[in-house]
Amino acid sequence: MSRATRRLSLIALTAIPLSATAAEQPGFPSPADHGPAGVMADHMHGAGEFMIGYRYMVSRSGGTILNGADEVSDPTLAAAGFSAVPTEMTMQMHMLDLMYAPRDWLTFMIMPQWMRMDMSMREVEGAVVDDHGGHGGHGGAHAHGTSRLGDTGLYALVRLLETGGHHVHAGLGFSAPTGAVDKKDADGRFVHYMMQLGSGTWDFLPSLTYTGRMNGWAWGAQASGIIRMEEKNESGFRFGDAVQLTAWGSRSLTDWLSASLRLSYFSQGTVKGHYNGPHNHTSPPDIQPNYGGQFFDLGIGLNAAVQRGALQGHRFGIEWLQPLHQDVNGFQQKRDGTLFATWALAF
Question: φ and ψ at 321, to 5 degrees?
Fold first, then answer.
């Protein structure tokens, strides 16, 4: 864990006990009603209630390359047959969060999203360029990006338990393949698998969520997964299945603001199949085994629920997800961290 992360954790943990006098006011929105900003499908609504929300995520990976959990140098990359590696990768997601509850025990949710991917590359020192002319015809350092509509999430959240401050619900979700998987560079070659804007397959997204609240404290846990329902997409491949386990705790600092800490574990398999058209083989993200792995993260966040004034009922959340441990499949960039920001209004 970095020094900055430890400092933020100490600040959050120190502030929590000092807020013991903060109380949630009945009849007003509470920041404890929602989980941390990076957790989706975390809450339900009452019968007849609508919610509109917006989610933003930006994730950055730097120029350090891992093989498993170990950092590797250019000679190792060159020996593995790579002549180019990423120096920076940024993924941005803009998501519209629409929810409606026809019954107290049932909430529907739809999540269309807009994706943007940007990557810069450099040559591997000492490598021999050999991929029918190099990396898409580019020589030396260069950058490229993709952006457009991503996949669309469709969910039904079903309440299983509601008693004594404890709540459990199941999520039955599907991801519709509305994002492009045929993006190509200027030379007509497919871009890296990770820079496509969707999965290209129908995916099943199950989840199980538990939340609890008592005396200004709130906590929760969620298990979720991604199960690809097709063998391959129109471009000839599919991403690996995934599972995520996360748990969090939060404390009200005031009647409108809470701080949270969260632990997250994410595991994903490698890419299966192969592009069915021209593409490169010069860098790690061009190769299917260099995807997925196991990732442990720490989330530090704030949730706010405006209780009076012109913005009464509006909710805001922010969370930073700091990598604790990364054990990647093959050769991949080391992740630097992810920022989440949310806004929501129920009516």
Answer: -110, 110
- Max intra-chain CA distance, the chain: 68
Q: What is the dihedral of CA 271, 54, 100, 30, to 10 degrees?
A: 120
Question: For the domain that residue 23 is a member of, what is the CATH number?
Answer: 2.40.128
Residue 197 and residue 182: Cα distance in Å, rounded?
9
d(CA 213, CA 303): 15
CA distance 5 to 15: 15
Give me the domain span that covers residue 274: 3-296+305-346
In DSSP terms, 103 is beta-bridged to 106
Burial of 184 (0-12, 13-18, 19+ CB in 10 A): middle
More confident residue, 265 or 15: 265
Q: Enter the pTM of the model.
A: 0.89
CA distances from 304 to 133, 150, 316 (A): 54, 28, 5
Q: Which of 305, 313, 209 is nearest to 258 (CA)?
A: 305
pLDDT digits (tens, 9 = 90+) for 201-253: 999 999 999 999 999 899 999 999 999 999 999 999 999 999 999 999 999 99
Distance CA 344, CA 307 (A): 13
Q: Are 244 and 295 in contact (CB under 8 A)?
A: no
3 state SS of 41:
coil
306 class by beta-carbon count within 10 Å (0-12 exposed, 13-18 middle, 19+ buried) = middle
Q: What is the mean pLDDT of residues 143-163?
A: 96
- Residue 205, beta-bridge partner list: 173
Could you tell me the CA-to-CA distances from 343 to 34, 56, 132, 304, 317 in Å, in that order?
11, 9, 48, 10, 7
Whether residue 287 is predicted with pLDDT greater than 70 in this model: the reply is: yes
> If you ran DSSP here, which 8-state letter would residue 138 be given?
B
Q: Rounded to an integer, what distance in angstroms lies between the CA atom of residue 232 and that of residue 292?
A: 17
Residues in the chain: 347
Structurally, the chain folds into a number of domains equal to 1
Distance, in Å, from the CA atom of 185 to the CA atom of 191, rounded to the nearest integer, reads 6
**Do residues 179 and 115 lie in contact, with contact meaning Cβ atoms separated by under 8 Å?**
yes
